[in-house]
């Protein structure tokens, strides 16, 4: 039996999964169709000469692009909240809680609504630690 520091706490913070504060099991709105894409900037030195250590894997990507299909939705009806590991999107008919594959810079992202395609496109910069690939 684990003894907690404060006798009034119900659970330990380690027991609660990250992003659980956004989960709402009683919300019956439909989850929209979405796609996660990875983007990296490459130059001729990467493509033709192989001078950098970049490869086509997601470990070398700089951005995450999330495309969310929102049919019959106006851009004014969209509520978007982005945290370092979680994207939370809400409209009157749809709800998406997406745990992101990498930590992102939540302060400097871009979102645009393509009304012809009825798609919201969110571009987020991946926050990585510097290593032998990302320097």
What are its keywords?
135 residues; 4-stranded antiparallel sheet; 3-stranded antiparallel sheet; mainly beta; Immunoglobulin-like
Structure description:
One of its GO terms (cellular component) is cytoplasm. This is PIHD3 protein. The longest helix has 4 residues, at 44-47. The protein contains 1 helix and 7 strands, in the order βαββββββ. The chain has one domain: Immunoglobulin-like (Sandwich). The mean pLDDT is 81. The relative contact order is 0.20. The strands form 2 sheets. The chain has a 4-stranded antiparallel beta sheet, with no helix packed on it. Strands 3-4-5 form a 3-stranded antiparallel beta sheet, with no helix packed on it. The chain is flat and about 60 Å long. The N and C termini lie far apart (46 Å). It is mainly β and 135 residues long.
CATH level-two architecture: Sandwich
Counting structural domains, the number is 1
- What percentage of the residues does DSSP assign to strands (E)? 25-35%
The level-1 CATH class? Mainly Beta
Number of helices: 1
Query: In terms of quaternary structure, what is this?
Result: single chain
Gap between N and C termini, in Å? Answer: 46 Å
Number of E-type strands: 7
- Which stretches of 5+ consecutive residues score pLDDT under 50? none
Strand arrangement across the biggest beta sheet: 1-2-7-6
CATH topology: Immunoglobulin-like
Silhouette: flat
Family: Belongs to the PIH1 family.
Protein name: PIHD3 protein
GO molecular function: dynein intermediate chain binding; protein-folding chaperone binding
Organism: Zapornia atra (Henderson crake)
